[in-house]
Amino acid sequence: MEQAVPVYILSGFLGSGKTTLLQRMLAAFRAEGKRPAVVMNELGEVNLDGQLVDSQVPTAELLGGCICCSIRGDLSLQLAELVQKEAPDVIIIEATGAANPMDILEGVSETSLYVRLELRELITVVDAAHLYDLYQEQRGKTYRLMQEQIRCASLLILNKTDRVGEEARDKLNELLRKWNAYAPVSEAVQCDVSLENLLYADTAGTELKEAQGSEAHHHHAKSCGHDHGEACGCSDSQEQTRHEHHHSHAHVMAYTHYFAGPVNSVEFEKLLRELPRDVYRAKGILTFNDTSGRFLFQYAYRESDFMKINPQGEVQDVAVFIGEHFDKEEMRQRLSSLETSPVN
Ligand SMILES: Nc1nc2c(ncn2[C@@H]2O[C@H](COP(=O)(O)OP(=O)(O)OP(=O)(O)O)[C@@H](O)[C@H]2O)c(=O)[nH]1
């Protein structure tokens, strides 16, 4: 009988390290001679993470929304198409950091009714520094979303441990155990974990497979804190009325800026340093007028990083800013004021 294609879901809050883990997993699968395929979901209108994935890897993109609301139907279609067209040995789904993984898990389960898929693991990557800071306050929507993402996981990676001290690490391990008593926890920097243990730890996989059965699934849903009844904050109003349930990420919004010309690198870094606290993730591709080449920039929880890049395909200079209730118009004006005339 035809083998089911194993599926891995990567979850974790914005900027926690999902793409970093994705790259490691892809390298590990390919080293074993396997053909992985990827489904990437971004809140912004462009897939910048796709620039970090080898162009040889078949990739389906779900852009401009979150899998778990307006484009959940698309997830099923994309999965089915990937299996039929590419016949991959394994599929990795990278969710937006704002997604509730329970909805993606349901999406994969639905698809597995008509395409042979086997949900193997739901891996949640946790930004140690970000969670520790929110833990001090013990409230807020982002804190609750992180909690849901951690609860649903079959494997947990406590990433960015370079940004916290030993005391915080102990506290975080305790917290993860409290929220999810079953998933093995691996501490990591740059998601550098032993992938053999991670990908072939069968116990957690079994639990997830069982979760595809309705009763276990119901139980799983309950333990994920996926409470129904509150109004949905999805942008799509039809969707909103169709399934009136609670999405804890409804507070998250994205602004995509297409640059009309190069910007000054010093001024741009200053803008990143001065971003409001409510903008917790940004990324983009830029041309600077004071240094040659193009750069992929990353900003995650107040840390920024620039990498020289030769974009695959035609990519305009663009930046995506993700956060809570920030002023998009103010952001647009600030970014536009940095633009200079294109260099000929
Ligand atoms: N200091 C530190 N930075 C890290 C670590 N792991 C990843 N990063 C950096 O954090 C930034 C975000 O990492 P990504 O892997 O893109 O995070 P992500 O979860 O895919 O982000 P979204 O897709 O936007 O949700 C990048 O600049 C990474 O280089 C780590 O362990 N420590």
Question: Concise description?
Answer:
The protein is α/β, with parallel strands linked by helices and 344 residues long. It has helices spanning 18-31, 72-86, 101-111, 128-137, 141-152, 166-179, 195-200, 202-211, 214-223, 237-242, 265-273, 328-338, and strands at 5-11, 36-41, 59-62, 90-94, 117-127, 155-159, 185-187, 252-258, 279-287, 294-300, 303-309, 318-324.
Textual characterization of the structure:
It is built from twelve helices and twelve strands. By secondary structure, it is of the alpha/beta class. It folds into two domains: 5-242, Rossmann fold, CATH 3.40.50.300; 253-338, CobW-like, C-terminal domain (Hypothetical Protein Yjia, Chain: A,domain 2, 2-Layer Sandwich). It has a seven-stranded parallel sheet, with helices on both faces. The chain binds guanosine-5'-triphosphate. Belongs to the SIMIBI class G3E GTPase family. ZNG1 subfamily. It catalyses: GTP + H2O = GDP + phosphate + H(+). InterPro entries: CobW-likC_sf, CobW-like_C, CobW/HypB/UreG_nucleotide-bd, P-loop_NTPase, Zinc-reg_GTPase_activator.
